Amino acid sequence: MVTTRSASGLRAVSLLCLVAAAQAAPNLSYKRQAPSFTRDGCFVSNTNGQRVLSKASYAGDAMTVESCAAFCSKYPQFGLEYGRECYCGDASGAEPVSDAECSFPCAGNPDEKCGAGNRADIYTNNLYTPSTPAILDAPYLGCFVDEGARVLPDNLLGDDAMTAQKCATHCADYSYFGVEYGRECWCGNSPPKKEASESECSFPCGGDDTQLCGAGGRINVWGSPKASPEAVGGYEYTGCYIDKLDLRTLKGKVSRESGMTLEKCATFCQGYNHFGATFGTQCFCGNDIEETAVEVAQAECSMRCGGDYDNVCGDANRLNIFSTPQCQPDPKNPATVGGFAYVSCWKDDRDARALDGKVERSSTMTVEKCSAICAGFGYFGVSDSASCFCGNELAGAAAPASECSQLCGGDSTQWCGGDLRLNVYASNST
């Protein structure tokens, strides 16, 4: 007897077979490639305590590839780990391993894989647009190292909605400004020195994720040095020069005050061929720019004047120098005056004065005035533009004539010593 099967019976058997196959052990899969992200593979996720994706993260029992992708949309890559953890960042340099090592199902979708212990399924965000430094009126200088002493030390502003524009406004009275760590703004008047790779400034700004706002220990900097005026008080701008305590560029008289301005310095140095401002508060005069002087870029003279924030007064070990268009004739002291004859430039010491008799000071000091003050003494000497010393004994030793380079306060055609230097005269009867 031949047994036949109806068509309906065959369909029933086929359906039973499909159901049986569906009830077999689940076969976990990676999320199918989507236009918005592409799977890169399975990677070691933590090496020596450092995560390969370290910018942002979250964990949840509803974790899926899609939810992690959405969370990390502002980053170039994202990764899933331990079934319920999501990490964002840049996985460059991560160590690849076998796909079999990423075996945990996603907590929110058991049909997807979400890494394993210390293993991450990493995807590239195809729609990611890298943040860039903002384009502002101030020139962009680059990404700089900011570790230890701050490169821009002033006027910190912290704001979770930080943007480069907000920082520029905050630092309007400074030459330079920079953004760091996604939310910090720093200001300063000296340019940063140690440049870093642009890729090291990778944090998006809290207030505009299309802009870069530095990173940890890295700062995006904008700005330019304040230009010196072309002329001040009859002096024309010469340039920015190196100036050191042991190697002065201008060796005339010196003034220091917290409210220094270029105009004050020009007035103080009237009668000299040159004046220079440094460190925001100091003024130097001189008839000659020393041969050892070295001119440097204007950017190195960027410290605002203590009494005028609209102008710069040099910087640390940097001097803004202005010069007269027509050099003054060299001052010349009289060979004899009031019964005294010129000896030489002489060294002085605060603890052991070369002349230890009478002392007077006057802002209008001249050689003639000092000779009258010291009438009856064996010697007199003029020093630091304004001081007159008398004595009957002359101690110490002669100094080079170039070290007596300060003009007399009352007569700019005469020399009146220098800092711890005297132009000394001896009585004709000595």
UniProtKB/TrEMBL annotation:
Lineage: Eukaryota, Fungi, Dikarya, Ascomycota, Pezizomycotina
PROSITE patterns: WSC
Cited Pfam families: WSC (PF01822)
Listed name of the protein: Fungistatic metabolite
Keywords (A to Z) from UniProt: Glycoprotein, Membrane, Signal, Transmembrane, Transmembrane helix
This protein's record includes keyword Cell membrane: no
WSC domain location: 36-126, 137-225, 234-325, 339-428
Signal peptide: 1-24
Subcellular localization: Membrane
GO CC annotation, single: plasma membrane
Topology with respect to the bilayer: Single-pass membrane protein
Domain of life of the native organism: Eukaryota
Annotated TM spans: none
